[in-house]
Specification:
By secondary structure, the chain is of the alpha+beta class. The chain has 4 domains: 116-351, Up-down Bundle (ABC transporter transmembrane region fold), CATH 1.20.1560.10; 371-462 and 797-902, P-loop containing nucleotide triphosphate hydrolases (Rossmann fold); 545-582 and 737-791, no CATH class; 588-736, no CATH class. It has 34 helices and 21 strands. The chain has a 7-stranded mixed β-sheet with strand order 10-17-18-7-19-20-21, with helices on both faces. Strands 6-5-8-9 form a 4-stranded antiparallel β-sheet, with no helix packed on it. Strands 1-4 form a two-stranded antiparallel ribbon. The longest helix is centred in the first third of the chain and has 54 residues, at 249-302. 31% of the residues are buried.
Length: 904
């Protein structure tokens, strides 16, 4: 980046800066005229100087063009004006003053809007430039730079920089011109008063900036301390598991408290300094009116200065302090922002960035990375200067399957990182054919080399989004977009140096994976997920997923048909007791009371749990059905039973999970409610709501407290109509069940069952799962449901998936883009040895004709590899695998002899 903030601003915005500055210059004559009008109003209209010779009228708005004295001083009347009386002149001049006020206000409005737009455009450019540099961080820089600090810089710390950009050139020009115009006007009225004002202004601009230097130093320290606080909070958040395991809450609280105290102390010192400077600045600003009133008044009394001039001077000076103060503030902001900008440029220093920008080459046009992999005088040192590899040379023919046997040392992982370009700080040279590994453009390397490390990196989104991440290199087709909005978006992108590509366009390159379209790609993804052992998980994710009937009406119809077929299967095979179906005219014993009353699925939290009990529409519905008091009474019975059951039990007891109405921490609250429930009148509205929320989660078949009889069941079924009627009035976020339709808010599994599995039948869940699987396969719906499973959200950093699932997704993401070189470094760690061995065979099988480098701890899993690479004493030895070839080779130093001809 440019080291100078002003050079950066001028480089990217000089056209807009000059345009606004031109408008500022154009506005100054109007500003000067508005300063002169108060003098004319007082002297000519109020004091009557325009009528001094006894005339009844005077000209209003005369316009005469006068030449300077050195050109003869001739005058040329252009317009003689309108003849008006004294009142007419007063009103005319006052109206003209108001007109210039409006004109000046319009100029200020346009200038401020233009500055704001310019600042926002430049802020967008600056943030994008910084993000682009984040993409250029070297692997070594990524290990030392805290992501939270980088995000804080781009999001928060450049915000004031962006706010200043619009003011960088325009504000000093605008405010300076206003101040100079006001000073010039005062000088025109009286030189002495003008010199006094100029002297005070000079003192202000000399003293105040010097006093603010300490503020800059303190502000820099505060900025660094704030950034470190954000980084530390992120560290604790990322390592919260260690905090909880080792009970270090108190120490972490004390450590953050100390940092907050240091920030408080810095801010306090900044406030003290800031307001001392402000006090002195205000004093100097008020010193000039003192001179105007005293000296100007004396001159007016002596007759050397008329009252109109004094009034005009005072009025003009009223316009002088604001721009001067803002100019001083601008100078302070300039220094402060320059410090922030310097901090940003230091964070994104050149030594942290890769030497080249993201290239635009198309990897599809490049030759594959095959041929001899040659290392020449390879040298690697640890951070303390210790030698890890010393002058290593070797040659391996590619494609090949190479096992990097670590033997418990980390050097094998370092070698894997070097081959995957995840480590660039090494000496010597590595080339593939004639291409230097470090000189391969990033775009080419990103498509032809894949790396799977021990910590899979998944982004928030669906499994599908993560699997196809390596296929999104450039837009390959445009989605339909409003033409005017598209032109505006592209125009703004060009003005701010942002990409013109639309993220909504088609970015997935189907040709890389060999797919025809989106459906074909899904089939390939599902097939690969099955091969790595995640087929059952994808199927279960699909059953737990949801579909949109409007988006996929054909699948919705098939699911309704599967629902009927499943019901027929249960009836035909004597399994009808496994599932109690949803029936609009029947109470469902396997469902909660809330679900029976709603007969649908809430789509927002406002209609779930306690929020439902607090909902006025719901309360009105159950009150109309005569169930409100009944449910409150039922809640009291549940609370009494739970208090009796849980008495004396520790908080983690299994009964709390079985009876999930009340948590251990809520028991004292409900015990207090029970003590107040001797009479209904004693219960508050809050108490009744709390009691009402308990039976809403009650399931008769599961909890078996005997609270629901046949009469109540009938009442609950009748209440459904009242609930639906009330909810439809307010358009509540609830999707109601319909036996002939799919409920988009319910999972696929619930739509297939359209009921609840019985709690009374042993092993019902497993038997129902088998029946669902049979029907799904029989109707050829398996692939559709697995496709729904690809929509499963992985969460932040993939935390909604298990370690094995994250590793599997990461491996498939690497396989999908069909790299020429696949490097596996600890990616199989979550799997047991048997499954890991199967995964190795799979990776080798899927990578036929391509290269695989895998870090292995020992020789137990090397039988399928072509070449074995061993590490020890700063050297590398390679050998062709005897188990893979018909002729075994003795291990030998890699830098002693080529092994290309020995590999089968």
């Amino acid at each position: 980046m440019e080291k100078s903030l002003f050079r950066y601003i001028w480089t990217h915005s000089k056209r807009d800066q000059l345009l606004v500055c031109a408008v500022v210059l154009v506005s100054q004559p109007f500003y000067f005229a508005s300063l002169d009008l108060p003098r004319q109003i007082v002297n000519q209209a109020i004091q009557g100087e325009a009528f001094r010779e006894g005339q009844a009228t005077a000209p209003f708005l005369p316009f005469t063009l006068s030449l300077p004295e050195w050109l003869g001083g001739a005058s040329f009347p252009i317009f003689e004006g309108f003849e008006v009386g004294r009142i007419g002149l007063l009103l005319g001049l006052s109206g003209l003053f108001l007109f210039f006020v409006i004109i000046n206000g319009a100029f200020k409005y346009w200038i401020n809007v233009a500055k704001g737009v310019l600042g926002e455009r430049m802020l967008r450019r600056l943030r994008f430039d910084l993000f682009t540099m984040v993409l250029r961080f070297t692997p070594e820089a990524l290990r030392t730079v805290k992501s939270s600090e980088t995000a804080t810089i781009i999001k928060d710390e450049v915000e004031p920089v962006g706010g200043f950009i619009g003011d960088a050139f325009i504000t000093p020009v605008f405010l300076g011109m206003q101040a100079l115009t006001a000073l010039f006007f005062i000088m025109v009225q009286n030189v002495s008063l003008g010199l006094m004002a100029l002297a005070v202004v000079g003192i202000q601009f000399t003293i105040i900036p010097r006093m603010r230097r300490e503020l800059l130093r303190l502000g820099k320290r505060r900025q660094i301390a704030s950034r470190q606080l954000a980084g530390r909070i992120a560290e604790v958040s990322d390592g919260i598991e260690a905090v909880q395991v080792h009970n270090s809450y108190a120490w972490e609280r004390a450590e953050i408290g100390q940092r907050l105290y240091q920030l408080f102390d810095l801010r306090l010192r900044i406030y003290n300094r800031k307001f001392i400077v402000k006090f002195i600045n205000n004093f100097l600003s008020q010193l000039t009116p003192f001179f105007f009133y005293s000296v100007g008044g004396y001159l007016a009394i002596r007759g050397t200065l008329d009252i109109g001039q004094l009034v005009a001077v005072i009025a003009a000076y009223r316009e002088l302090p604001p721009p001067l103060k803002e100019l001083i503030d601008w100078d302070q902001q300039r220094l402060d922002v320059q410090v922030k900008y310097d901090q940003v440029t230091q964070h994104f220093s050149e030594e942290r960035l890769a030497p080249t920008l993201l290239a635009k080459e198309d990897a599809g046009e490049e030759a594959p990375l095959v041929g001899p992999l040659v290392a020449e005088d390879l040298r690697v040192s640890d951070p303390h200067g210790g030698v890890i590899l010393n002058g290593v040379s070797f040659e391996i023919p590619l494609p090949a399957d190479v096992a990097l046997i670590s033997g418990g040392a980390s050097v094998a992982s370092l070698m894997a990182q070097i081959l995957a370009r995840r480590m660039t700080t090494f000496g010597g040279r590595i080339r593939i054919g004639e291409q230097d590994l470090r000189q391969i453009p990033p775009a080419i390397a990103g498509q032809k080399i894949a790396y799977a490390g021990v910590d899979p990196i998944l982004f928030p989104g669906s499994i599908r989004d993560n699997l196809v991440y390596g296929l999104r290199h450039k837009p390959l087709g445009q989605r339909k977009e409003d033409e005017r909005e598209a032109l505006r978006r592209i125009r703004e992108a060009q003005r701010t140096g942002n990409p013109i590509e639309n993220v909504a366009d088609e970015w997935i390159d189907y040709t890389v994976v060999g797919a025809k379209d989106e459906d074909d790609l899904d089939r390939i993804l599902i097939d690969l997920m099955k091969k790595v052992g995640m087929g059952n998980e994808i199927y279960l994710f699909g059953l737990a997923g949801r579909i949109d009937p409007e988006r996929d009406p054909q699948l919705a119809e098939h699911l309704v048909e599967a629902r009927r077929r499943l019901r027929e299967t249960f009836q035909a095979e004597g399994m009808a007791d496994l599932v109690e179906p949803f029936d609009p005219q029947q109470f469902n014993d396997q469902s909660t009371i809330a679900e029976n009353l709603l007969f649908g699925v809430p789509t927002s939290d406002a209609f779930r749990g306690r929020n439902l009990a607090e909902n006025s529409s719901f309360r009105s519905a159950i009150d109309q059905a005569g169930l409100f008091d009944e449910l409150v009474h039922m809640g009291r019975q549940i609370a009494e039973t739970m208090a009796e059951i849980f008495e004396g039990l520790p908080p983690g007891h299994s009964l709390f999970e079985q009876f999930s109405f009340i948590g251990a921490e809520e028991l004292p609250e409900f015990e207090a409610i029970l003590r107040r429930s001797r009479s209904d009148a004693a219960l508050t509205k809050e108490d009744r709501t709390r009691l009402l929320s308990l039976p809403l989660a009650y399931i008769e078949a599961r909890h078996r407290l005997g609270l629901i009889d046949d009469k109540l069941k009938v009442q609950f079924v009748q209440a459904r109509g009242y609930v639906r009627q009330e909810f439809q009035k307010v358009e509540a976020d609830v999707e109601f069940y319909d036996p002939e339709k799919i409920c988009a808010a319910a999972p696929v599994r619930d739509n297939l069952l359209f009921g609840r599995v019985s709690y009374r039948v042993a092993n019902a869940q497993a038997r129902v799962a088998e029946a669902i699987s049979a029907v799904v396969k029989g109707l050829d719906l398996l692939e559709d449901i697995e496709r729904v499973g690809l929509d499963r959200q992985v969460g932040t950093a993939g935390r909604l998936l298990t370690a094995q699932e994250r590793a599997s997704v990461n491996l498939v993401r690497c396989l999908v883009k069909r790299p020429d070189i696949l490097v596996i470094d600890g990616a199989l760690a979550p799997f047991d040895e048997t499954r890991a061995q199967k995964m190795i065979k799979l990776l080798i099988e899927l990578g036929r004709g391509r290269s695989l480098f895998m870090v292995l701890p020992n020789d137990r899993q090397v039988e399928d590899f072509d070449i074995l690479m061993r590490f020890g004493d700063g050297q590398i030895t390679t050998e062709s695998n005897a188990g893979r070839t018909s002729e075994a080779s003795e291990p030998q130093p890699a830098n002693a002899q080529r092994i290309a001809g020995e590999v089968a």
